[in-house]
Amino acid sequence: MTENISCRNFEKVNDILEKYDYRPSNLISILQEVQEIYRYLPEEILTYISTAMGIAPARVFGVATFYENFSLEPKGKNVIKVCNGTACHVRKSDKILSTVRETLNLKNGAKTTDDMLFTLETVSCLGACGLAPVVVVNDRVYGNMTPEKVVQLINEIMEGSRNDQDS
Amino acid sequence: MIRTVDELEKNFQELSKMARGYRMRILVCGGTGCIANGSLEIYKKFKEVLRQKGLYTDLELIQEGREGTGVAASGCHGFCEMGPLVRIEPNGFLYVKVKAEDVEDIVESTVIKNEPVMRLLFCDPAEKKHFLREEEIPFYRRQTRLVLKNCGKIDPEDIRDYIACGGYRALAKVLTEMTPEQVCDEILKSKLRGRGGAGFPTGKKWQQVFSQDSDVKYVVCNGDEGDPGAFMDRSVMEGDPHRILEGMMIAGYATGAREGYIYVRAEYPLAVKRLQTAINQAREWGLLGKNILSSNFDFDIHINRGAGAFVCGEGSALTQSIEGFRGMPRPRPPRTVEKGLFGKPTVLNNVETFANVPSIILNGAEWFSSIGTPESPGTKIFALTGNINNTGLIEVPMGITLRQILFEVGGGIKSGKKFKAVQIGGPSGGCLTEEHLDLSMDFDSLEKAGAMIGSGGLVVMDEDACMVEVARFFMDFTQRESCGKCVPCREGTKRMLEILEKIVSGNGTVEDLELLNELAEVVKTGSLCGLGKTAPNPVLTTMKYFKEEYMAHVIDKRCPSKVCRGLARPVINREKCRGCGKCKRICPASAIEGEAKKPHEIDQNRCLRCLACIDACPFDAIREE
Predict the structure, then answer these.
(1) pLDDT the model gives residue A7
(2) Please, are residues B262 and B341 in contact by the beta-carbon 8 Å criterion?
(3) Which of A44, A162, B89, B109 would you label with B168, given CA atoms 20 to 30 Å apart?
(4) pLDDT of residue B66
(5) What single DSSP character describes residue B576?
């Protein structure tokens, strides 16, 4: 469901480029929308965008690599963001992070699990400091987390996806 | 469609009269924090229950003459720790930690009988009593909510709520009664200073843009609130978006700009949504677009979503990002007021600054300067977080002391621990300690103390925090966020982080501290923008106020707060040890020796400080020293 690039389907990208008038100043918005479709920025799409917009591929890659939200690698089905902002850090967010790493068996700084079910990211601040420490799973915010709660959360998601496969 | 000032006034009169048709109004907090705790389900449940009981009304029903109880999902009330929050108008009851199951009770007691539900009232742990009304709670009592006036009291997704509270009347006033010069003068006279951190006089900035000779000018609102631990801009954008639009439009009129951009960080999807709704509604109502209120003034606003780069909070990096480039700061001059967005003169202010503007125009500069201190008038919103009892957003007059914030508004340190320090202004700020408790919180006093208001994040740390580790944490942040343009910042912050990591892992030396100091100066002086210039601040201030902690780390190889694992020393209590050998078996470095059934001993030279032995001991005989 994430990748349709194998069939070289650039139609959606064309729609986005059209919507933003091929204007270079809209490059960031264009990349954001493209990423929403593919969940990451595939290399051939980036080169395609640069040709279609008439700007250097270096500029497109430069922007795509500068901003943290852009990913050049495929992401897992579920994105877990552990907040490591000051308030969360003070309330021991690193324990949450190490628990998630352990539970998902992510070693040597790997971000995505082998089964492509989870991607783990850290963010600097989600602005929900009153609920620190905070974890966001697929854009839903979970506050006042503990290592136990986060394990439970991951288990629930795993179970949910297993049920999806069964049905 | 509102075409003239008279029509706006008529709408204001009608809508505020209609609002009186609410016998009662239930405001469920719809801020990010409370939504995370399920407030939207509560909101839906209220609607459902009230409808079932025939008590429900809304503006359309009131128009048909049906009075009753209304429900709205409001913006953030600020008291996030206690969420989800529910406020009842007009009697001002505030319910905390509400669950969907409580809805029936609230409707039965409060809506029908006008009685409070005692178990949902806030109970202050210090004063050991329940508080009926929001205004009576110690957390709110000391606050002066001007910018946050509507946050939590109106529905941010309904422009009619904003108009009923007198919204867009400041815009009407400048368009009909004031010249652009007069608006700039009024803001200058009010001494409003930029709330983004630096505290530059807003009126002066506007005058400078006004005096630029250019056909095209821009107004840019900086909503890239990147400082970890600050979320006031998010709350204003989510809770009262029209106030920001109105402030930007007034800035546009005052400076001759016809187009505005709001740059919101990507981590705030709800803020983007609410702002977009507000812009759409303002356009529909004729308050944005061409010939606003028949005054020949055109203005329109666009939203740009950030993509996750802290440095984009810096003015020139932000404009680069809106233009679709890598967000890297550029040398100045020319300044943003001369050559900003797309090379045109640009007013760039922070969300909170724009949100201050409408009230200043309506109530006058004198009113504004009567609040706060003479040189820093008005209020400031702080985000109070960390190890404090009441976390949340607070708006207090400038000049309040840190002690008042922490102990009166904040309710003291969590779990009765001792106050150690507060980090103000995020990774660019500094730390304040016990000796600063009576310091006046305003731009100039804080600068003198080596800190800065910055965005207004206040992260409270208790006696358990290790200040060296805190400095390492911030350095890790700035090091990652450095855009890489200036070598001293890019390489310097990395080296500083390495030294700090060396110290917390127990390998630091006294020479490292000197080197750290030296590097800090280089990074400060050799960087173009605020990020690099202020990056060493957390290190410098912690070194200044907690020198002995650094010394303990490098000389005694000991972390006084027992935070740094690399310095932890497990020690066996000979009296408690039964010699079971569990620790000996688990130790990866074979650092534990001893005969069976006799007290064991740890060889500190071989110990890796993994502390696995502490967890392994069934007799609780091993402790960190």
Answers:
(1) 45
(2) no
(3) B89
(4) 87
(5) T
pLDDT at A6 (0 to 100): 47
Give the mean model confidence (pLDDT) for residues B387-400. Answer: 93
Burial of B384 (0-12, 13-18, 19+ CB in 10 A): buried
Nearest CA in chain A to B341: A25
Distance between A27 CA and the closest CA of chain B, angstroms: 5
Taking an 8 Å cut-off on Cβ atoms, the answer to whether B229 and A87 are in contact is yes
Residue of chain A with shortest Cα separation from B481:
A68
Q: How many helices (H) and strands (E) would you count in chain B? A: 27, 20
Q: Are residues A127 and B32, on separate chains, in Cβ contact within 8 Å?
A: yes
CATH number of B569-624: 3.30.70.20
Query: How far does A148 lie from chain B, in Å, by closest CA?
Result: 17
Nearest CA in chain B to A64: B326
Between chains, do B483 and A66 touch, taking CB under 8 Å as contact?
A: yes
> What's the whole-number mean pLDDT along residues B383-404?
93
Shortest Cα–Cα distance, A92 to chain B (Å) = 10
CA distance to B13, B18, B122, B557, per residue, from B63 (Å):
14, 7, 36, 74
Which residue has better confidence, B228 or B180?
Answer: B180
For residue A107, is pLDDT > 70?
Answer: yes
Task: Give the CATH fold of the B20-134 domain.
Answer: Glutaredoxin (3.40.30)
| Confidence band of A167 (pLDDT split at 50, 70, 90) | low
Q: How many angstroms separate the CA atoms of B174 and B361, rounded?
A: 8
Contact B307 A123 (CB under 8 A): no
User: Which pLDDT does position A2 carry in this prediction?
Assistant: 45
Q: Which of B61-75, B210-224, B244-258 has the lowest mean pLDDT?
A: B61-75
A86 to B457: CB separation less than 8 angstroms, yes or no: yes
CB contact under 8 A, A130 and B385: yes
> Domain A5-66: which topology?
Arc Repressor Mutant, subunit A (1.10.10)
A83 to chain B: nearest residue by CA?
Answer: B228
CA distance A38 to A49: 14
- Look at the domain B379-462 and name its fold: Ubiquitin-like (UB roll) (3.10.20)
- Domain residue limits, chain B: 20-134, 160-369, 379-462, 467-554, 569-624
AA identity, residue B369: S
- Binary contact (A129, B310; C-beta < 8 A): no
Separation between Cα atoms, residue B487 and residue B501, nearest integer Å = 21
Q: Please, what is the average pLDDT of chain A?
A: 89
**DSSP state, B347?**
E
Which of the four pLDDT bands, split at 50, 70 and 90, describes residue B56? very high
Contact check, Cβ <8 Å, A131/B226:
no
Given pLDDT bands bounded at 50, 70 and 90, which one contains residue A8?
Answer: low
Least CB-CB distance to B385: which of A23, A129, A142? A129
From the list A70, A87, A130, which residue is nearest B459 (CB)? A87
Per the omega criterion (within 30 degrees of 0), is the bond before A57 cis?
Answer: no
Residue B316 near residue B332 (C-beta atoms within 8 A): yes
B425 reaches A (C-beta below 8 A): no
Point out the least confidently predicted range of B126-135, B356-365, B416-425, B505-514: B126-135
For residues B78 and B279, give the distance between their C-alpha atoms in angstroms, rounded to a whole number: 24
Looking at residue B523, what is its pLDDT?
96
